[in-house]
């Protein structure tokens, strides 16, 4: 997860962009922070999906084979 300080800075720059606009340096900083945020989010989402198991109402595991293969490779389940 991105640090609280960086998240606050992202929000601060977004508010300033709407209100008065950003300087070229601030725009570069905003782009860099957004990129870092998205990379962190995607990594976290991928990890969550890869560790998920799916069961039908009868309690039978119906996790897609592709996901089971990833989990086996990473020795998760």
What is the CATH H-level superfamily?
Answer: Helix hairpin bin
CATH class: Mainly Alpha
CATH-defined architecture: Orthogonal Bundle
Poorly predicted regions are none
Number of strands: 0
Total tally of structural domains: 1
Structural class: mainly alpha
Number of helices: 3
Distance between the termini: 24 Å
| CATH-defined fold name | Helix Hairpins
Helix coverage percent of residues? Answer: 55-70%
Strand-residue proportion: under 5%
List the helices and strands in order: HHH
Q: What is the gyration radius calculated from CA atoms? A: 19 Å
Major β-sheet, in short?
none
Name the average pLDDT. 94
Shape: elongated
Can you tell me about this structure?
The protein has 77 residues and is mainly alpha-helical. The chain has a single domain, classed as Helix Hairpins (Orthogonal Bundle), CATH 1.10.287. 68% of the residues lie in helices and 0% in strands. The protein has helices at residues 4-19, 24-50, 65-73. Helix 1 packs across helix 2 (24-50). The mean pLDDT is 94.
What is the topology?
Elements: H1 4-19, H2 24-50, H3 65-73
Helix pairs in contact: 1-2
Key terms for this structure?
77 residues, mainly alpha, Helix Hairpins, 3 helices
Summarize the structure.
By secondary structure, this protein is mostly helical.
């Amino acid at each position: 997860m991105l640090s609280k300080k960086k998240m606050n800075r992202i929000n601060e720059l977004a508010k300033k962009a709407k209100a008065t606009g950003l300087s070229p340096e601030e725009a570069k900083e905003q782009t860099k922070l957004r990129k870092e945020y998205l990379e962190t989010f995607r990594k976290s989402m991928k990890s969550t999906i890869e560790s998920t198991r799916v069961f039908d109402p009868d309690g039978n595991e119906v996790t897609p084979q592709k996901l089971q293969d990833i989990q086996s490779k990473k020795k998760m389940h």
